[in-house]
Amino acid sequence: MAKRDYYEILGVAKDASADEIKKAFRRLAVQYHPDKEGGSEEKFKEINEAYEILKEPSKRQRYDQFGHAGVGSSAASDGGNPFGGGFGGQNINFDFGDLGLGDIFGSFFGGGSRSQSQQSRRGRDVETRVEISFEQAIFGSEQTVSLNLDDTCEHCKGTTVEPGHELKTCDTCKGSGQVVRVAQTIFGNIQQASVCPTCHGTGKVPEKVCSVCRGKGTQRRASNLTLKIPAGVDDGSVIRLREHGEAVANGPKGDLYVNIRVKAHKKFTREGDIVLSEEHVSMVDAALGVEIDVDTVDGPVRMKIPAGTQSGTDFKLSGHGVPHLNRDTRGAHIVTVIVDTPTKLTKKQKELLESFYVEPKKRGLWS
Fold first, then answer.
1. CA distance 223 to 247
2. Cα separation, 52 vs 18, whole angstroms
3. What's the CA gap between 64 and 335, in Å, rounded?
4. pLDDT surpasses 70 at 102
5. What pLDDT is attached to residue 34?
6. Mind spelling out the 3-state secondary structure of the chain?
7. For 309-338, what is the mean pLDDT?
8. Beta bridge partners of 279
9. How far apart are CA 26 and CA 127, in angstroms?
10. How far apart are CA 126 and CA 106, in angstroms?
11. For residue 295, what are the β-bridge partners?
């Protein structure tokens, strides 16, 4: 489905002033705010995206020239929600269940268990950081993550029991996982249930504890993990590896969260799925027209600059931007041409420029 025109969304003309755009946004934002009766979260997000582009002169200029392709599919996300609704932000969460993309929301929704204490028996989540280059973020890469975590005991396989022996019913709680105590209060005796201190809520204890981990079920171990980073990942993204965190006895491992940091590039910047760069040309080349080699993430690309090009003009190189996640398409590379005006001229050069200046002045073209 094609995206709607940003001017149409805000209900303003294409030559609307910045003040008119701001007033239109405020009026519509109040009308469609999700917290208001009759509001619409989808409509509000659409209004906010349009405003984030049109309020910035440089983004508006590219949008006017190239449409949605000139501002990137997610370029409007950096402004956030001015009303605090949480629609903005650039962080992306990837869930790599077995080092592959999976269900991002899997850990947030689940069924109940027979006791709260058993439900909480899960390993600790771990957070780490990986730094990659601009090009690695564009095309994807494999990175080695070094970890030093509590891992499952190899001797008892995390059961806490010495091999050859079994778990038995806890004598303290009789297998319930809870102990009940009676507390005397001004309102009378009140029963209080708490997690069994002997079995820690499992209802079972080893006949003989593991001789290696001493009943912990875990061992501290260093390991290296190969992480596949998808093409198009952005700075600040978080990759979630399910059950690659710390281990715990008789329970699943926690999750590993890898924060992606992308190093700044000396020439390129990024907005959503587009790459931005500048190219400098001389005043003569801009006036007469020229072809130049432009650096892109794919290598040099030949680009034609037509005669009469003004400084600050944008040119679009389609298909040389950031790959779209899980798609075979890419954004554009926007090149801004900067015309360099000479600061030191010879006497002859000055005379030539002055002769060029005289004729248009006589025709009344210049004041």
1. 13
2. 12
3. 15
4. no
5. 78
6. CCCCCHHHHHCCCCCCCHHHHHHHHHHHHHHHCCCCCCCCHHHHHHHHHHHHHHCCHHHHHHHHHHHHHHCCCCHHHHHCCCCCCCCCCCCCEEEECCCCECCCCCCCCCCCCCCHHHHCCCCCCEEEEEEECHHHHHHCEEEEEEEEEEEECCCCCCCCECCCCCEEECCCCCCCCEEEEEEEECCEEEEEEEECCCCCCCCEEECCECCCCCCCCEEEEEEEEEEEECCCCCCCCEEEECCCCCCECCECCCCEEEEEEECCCCCCEEECCEEEEEEEEEHHHHHHCEEEEEEECCEEEEEEECCCCCCCEEEEECCCCCECCCCCCECCEEEEEEEECCCCCCHHHHHHHHHHHHHHHHCCCCC
7. 91
8. 337
9. 39
10. 17
11. 300
Only one residue has tokens 């875990």, namely: 218
> Across residues 80-102, what is the average pLDDT?
41
| Alpha carbons 340 and 357: distance in angstroms, whole number | 18
List residues bridging with 304 in a β-sheet: 291
Q: Which amino acid is at 101?
A: L
- Amino acid 160 reads T
Q: What is the phi/psi pair of residue 304, to 5°?
A: -95, 130
β-pairing, 238-241 with 256-262?
A: antiparallel
How far from each other are the two terminal CA atoms of the chain, in whole angstroms? 50
Q: Is 8 left (phi over 0), alpha (psi -120 to 50) or beta?
A: alpha
Q: Distance between CA 83 and CA 44 in Å, rounded?
A: 10
Q: How far apart are CA 186 and CA 226, in angstroms?
A: 60
Q: What is the pLDDT of residues 38-81, one digit of tens each?
A: 778 888 889 988 998 999 898 898 888 888 888 876 444 444 43
Pairing of strands 178-185, 188-195: antiparallel
Going from the C-alpha of 113 to that of each of 108, 193, 245, 274, the distances in angstroms are 15, 16, 22, 47
CA distance 55 to 43: 18
